[in-house]
Amino acid sequence: MKRWIWLMCLVPACFTQRAAAQWTVIDPSNLVQNIKSAVQSSTTASNMIKSLQESVKIYNQSKAYYDALKSVHNIIKDARKVKLTIEMVSEITDIYMSGFNRMVTDRNFTPGELAAISAGYARLLEEGGALVTELKNIVTSGNGLSLSDKERMDVVDQIYTRMLRYRNLTRYYTDKAISVSFLRSQSKGDAARVQALYGKPSERYW
């Protein structure tokens, strides 16, 4: 009877874990085409595409580590915050791709502004990637650090908090950029087009 109760408790937990372990599939090809179409300067377009490629590189490295983590069997593997921290890199990249893909088709932004926005996103992704590397050094055995499980988990908590901040900053950064377009569209009497492009605030996941 006790075994049956234990199994009943375990099954929902497995489904919960599986649902939380979503990893967004990133396809930058459409964004590259939109950048080339929106930005006439080949130098500016090249810099923006290079920034995008670096972001995708960070995303792929994080995904590779996330996949490798599944084969590790220790207390760290089962730490929910380790998985959530890495998954946030996927979320940050998805916010960047989805939001910026709309911005490069928005005529309310100049090529110079788009380049600056792109650089801002690249910086956020770079910081997120650095945190994943830091997390990997803490989690991976044989890193030369003699830390107890509690000490490791304390560091994991700190990295998680910092990654959460970058995720929230990415959302805020995207919202602020979109709000600039909304303000400009209102002065031009073009708010309906911009709203259709980005969706109402309640409809946007970021």
TrEMBL record:
Keywords: Signal. Pfam families: DUF4141. InterPro entries: DUF4141. Residues 1-21 form the signal peptide. This is Transposase.
